[in-house]
Design a protein that fits this description.
The protein has about 300 residues and is α/β, with parallel strands linked by helices. The protein has helices spanning about 1-20, 75-85, 100-105, 135-140, 165-175, 185-195, 210-220, 240-250, 265-270, 270-280, 285-300, and strands at about 60-65, 90-95, 110-115, 150-155, 180-185, 200, 225, 235, 240, 255. It has an eight-stranded parallel beta sheet, with helices on both faces. A two-stranded antiparallel sheet has the order 8-9. The chain is globular and about 45 Å long. The chain binds zinc ion. The site of zinc ion has 5 residues, from loops.
């Protein structure tokens, strides 16, 4: 009997796939007026007008990279077309070097939210937190006046206790720039210990941190938002898992959709990533889905 109860969901999913495949251009989406949300608010926001959270749900992306190794095959014009095609209306972008982010931002300033990355080259990824030159580099980059956040950077455990990291955290607070941290739980706690006023977007929601531990982290740290790229455990066989549904309903203002285009194959696969995200978003109450899809990113990085 179980299969008959599942049939309608299967049909809805197949319909969504067929609709997306048939459209070279996305169907126009209803414009959603952003609703300010705060980390302390534990109840879903109420949209002014009901919107579909099916295949046409407006989507913002909290984790795109445009690093130099993809520039040849994905010039700026192609990125813009791809974002149009998959329906990404705004996107938080970082890159190595930062020039990729600047190029995309200059071509599409209304869509691109630029983050400054503390990496001059990929070689900085493993030791930026202990290199004093990185502070001067980030300060110099910030003089461009375009950046809305600092990240995505990689940082784990006690590496988050260095003077360099302390200075970056203080810079973030002084200039109201959220950090985008690819970090384990210990590093997130160390960043908040460095300055409790800092706002952190947790890249990949800790990647492999259990849903129970994610809940504890969000409960304990009101300035923590969780970005969902690479969380393949959100859905199983295309269905939202009970653990993640419970997390999204308990913390409707704290999760942000993300794709993470860190290599070219992730750009190639972006339509499929978006399609599967739209699948599990469609299982959530409309307001919660809209928060994860757009509003939570906007509340953290502004309009
Ligand atoms: Zn990452």
């Amino acid at each position: 009997m179980n299969i008959f109860r599942r049939l309608p969901v299967v049909f809805i999913y197949l319909f969504a796939i067929a609709l997306l495949a048939a459209c070279a251009q996305p169907t126009p989406v209803p414009t959603q007026r952003p609703v300010p949300v705060t980390a302390a608010t534990a109840t879903p926001q109420t949209a002014e007008s009901p919107t579909s959270n099916g295949p046409t749900l407006a989507l913002y992306d909290g984790h795109l990279h445009y690093s130099s190794d993809v520039w040849a095959n994905y010039p700026v014009s192609k990125i813009k077309s791809l974002l149009d095609q998959v329906g990404i209306k705004r996107a938080l972008v970082s890159s190595t070097p930062n020039e990729g982010t600047v190029r995309l931002y200059q071509a599409d300033p209304n869509r691109i939210i630029p983050e400054v990355r503390p990496y001059r080259t990929r070689d900085d990824m493993g030791n930026w937190f202990s290199n004093p030159q990185i502070v001067a580099f980030v300060e110099q980059e910030l003089e461009r006046g375009i950046y809305r956040g600092i990240g995505e950077f990689h940082l784990n455990s006690d590496d988050a206790k260095t003077p360099v990291v302390q200075r970056i955290v203080d810079l973030a607070v002084e200039r109201n720039l959220p950090l985008h941290a690819h970090s384990n739980q210990a590093a997130i706690e160390n960043l908040f210990a460095a300055n409790p006023k800092v706002k952190i977007m947790w890249a990949h929601t800790g990647m492999s941190v259990s849903p129970d531990d994610v809940a504890q982290m969000l409960e304990r740290n009101p300035n923590l938002w969780a970005e969902l790229s690479y969380r393949s455990d959100i859905a199983s066989n295309g269905k939202l898992t009970p653990e993640w549904r419970a997390l999204f309903l308990r913390f409707p203002n704290r999760f942000v959709y993300g794709s993470d285009t860190w290599v070219e194959s992730r750009w190639d696969g972006l339509p499929n990533l978006i399609l599967s995200a739209r699948g599990w978003l469609a299982e959530l109450p409309t307001d919660v889905a809209a928060n994860i899809a757009t509003r939570n990113l906007e509340s953290l990085y502004g309009q």
